[in-house]
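Support request from a user on the community tier.

User writes: "When I paste my structure tokens into the form, the page sometimes reloads and wipes my input. The last time it worked, I copied everything first. Here is what I submitted, just in case something in the input itself triggers the reload:"
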């Protein structure tokens, strides 16, 4: 089975050559050929610029805690493709994944479907055949023309809105907000943590929108490397929910609050919300690991907003300055990211994800860091970067100050695979 599955995955990764082609025609045709599996479960769409995966993971955990069989679709994966499709918290098994690919492939080839369209269809087929009651689906890029928007969500979430993918979504926050508002449905519930100035753009769709800072709010009551404690408030102060989450930082608390509000709107009990948020697991996003006495903080921050959230969290945890392992895609706002991160950094080891053709060469990143006065070393691979970043106290029983790894989810995935000895798929990844 392993060899057959590998051949199908080789084909699937080959569809990346079609690039990203916004539009719903192909995905709708593909789902129709498959018997519209997306109609066999209830769904939530989670869009936004940052925090989509965290909110999706927390909301899916709350739904699961309420006793409902729950699927979650996220992207990209960190180390293994099956991570994109989880049922009740567990990645789908090889036989199910193979069956889905064998079913979807001939139709996808006939339609010349793109990589993300195929992956979306595979997720819908898997969830339908796993008899999930709910699927929490992370939107890819934008919203209006994203393949996931072929689903009919009973609730939609827009986490926040920042300047990212401007070449496709538009160069202003209002333009990007209008694209992301495409996942909202008139008359259907929705929640958002977008800035107040963008609420009118989102409300044009006619969804029943709850906004963080208006219909609900939160207050952080405790913060450590093990997680965050917060209170969820309603405007009149009459209702309050005490929550604990492994998600770190103020933005982790905001994502937890957003997921809690969404779960409550879906009728999940307060106790199930508490339990689900406490049990949330979202690897590679401000994830703290200890390996042989050394602490590592892995974060997929890959744009300026993500870099700012990471810096703010390091401040709140009183961890700065930190040693940083950094690698990023060449098409990101690299100079702005470096300027945001630099004040929190003592020195940096530059590297690049080995399986991401989009990764910037360390040599092109060096001048950006040196312009900020940060000592720089270069590493040819993530493995070498970890060796250079590891202090002499690696084997000490007392955990050393954490080394931070950030800049790209592809890099974080490769690093995590090395640290946990899980390996990683050896295929080029554009998406």
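"...and here is what came back when it finally went through:"
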């Amino acid at each position: 089975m392993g060899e057959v599955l590998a051949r199908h995955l080789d084909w699937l990764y080959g569809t990346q050559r079609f690039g990203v082609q916004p539009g719903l025609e192909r995905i709708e045709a593909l789902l129709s050929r498959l018997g519209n599996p997306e109609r066999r479960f209830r769904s939530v769409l989670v869009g936004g610029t940052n925090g989509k995966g965290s909110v999706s993971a927390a909301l899916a955990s709350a739904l699961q805690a309420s006793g409902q069989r729950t699927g979650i679709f996220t992207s990209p994966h960190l180390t293994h493709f099956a991570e994109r499709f989880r049922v009740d918290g567990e990645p789908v098994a090889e036989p199910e994944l193979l069956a889905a690919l064998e079913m979807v492939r001939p139709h996808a080839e006939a339609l010349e479907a793109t990589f993300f369209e195929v992956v979306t269809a595979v997720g819908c087929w898997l969830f339908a055949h796993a008899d999930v009651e709910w699927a929490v689906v992370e939107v890819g890029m934008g919203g209006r023309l994203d393949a996931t928007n072929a689903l009919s969500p009973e609730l939609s979430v827009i986490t926040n809105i920042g300047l990212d993918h401007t070449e496709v979504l538009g160069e202003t926050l209002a333009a990007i907000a209008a694209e992301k508002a495409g996942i909202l449905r008139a008359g259907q519930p929705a929640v958002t943590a977008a800035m107040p100035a963008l609420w009118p753009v989102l409300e044009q769709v006619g969804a029943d929108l709850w906004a963080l800072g208006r219909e609900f709010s939160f207050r952080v009551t405790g913060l450590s490397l093990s997680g965050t404690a917060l209170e969820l408030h309603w405007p009149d102060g009459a209702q309050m929910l005490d929550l604990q989450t492994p998600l770190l930082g103020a933005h982790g608390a905001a994502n937890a609050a957003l997921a809690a509000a969404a779960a409550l709107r879906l009728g999940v009990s307060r106790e199930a919300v508490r339990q689900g948020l406490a049990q949330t697991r979202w690897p590679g996003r401000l994830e703290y690991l200890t390996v042989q006495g050394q602490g590592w903080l892995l974060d997929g921050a890959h744009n300026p907003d993500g870099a700012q959230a990471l810096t703010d969290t390091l401040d709140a945890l009183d961890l700065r300055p930190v040693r940083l392992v950094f690698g990023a895609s060449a098409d990101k706002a690299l100079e702005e990211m470096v300027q945001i991160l630099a004040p929190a950094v003592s020195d940096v080891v530059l590297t690049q994800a080995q399986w991401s053709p989009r990764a910037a060469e360390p040599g092109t990143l060096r001048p950006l860091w040196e312009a900020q006065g940060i000592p720089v070393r270069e590493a040819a691979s993530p493995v070498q970067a970890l060796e250079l970043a590891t202090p002499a106290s690696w084997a000490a029983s007392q955990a050393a100050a954490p080394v931070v790894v950030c800049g790209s989810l592809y890099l974080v995935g490769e690093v995590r695979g090395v640290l946990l000895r899980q390996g990683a798929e050896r295929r080029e990844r554009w998406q």
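Agent notes: The reload is a front-end session timeout and is unrelated to the input. The CA atoms of residues 295 and 402 lie 4 Å apart. The longest helix spans residues 94-111. Escalated to web team.
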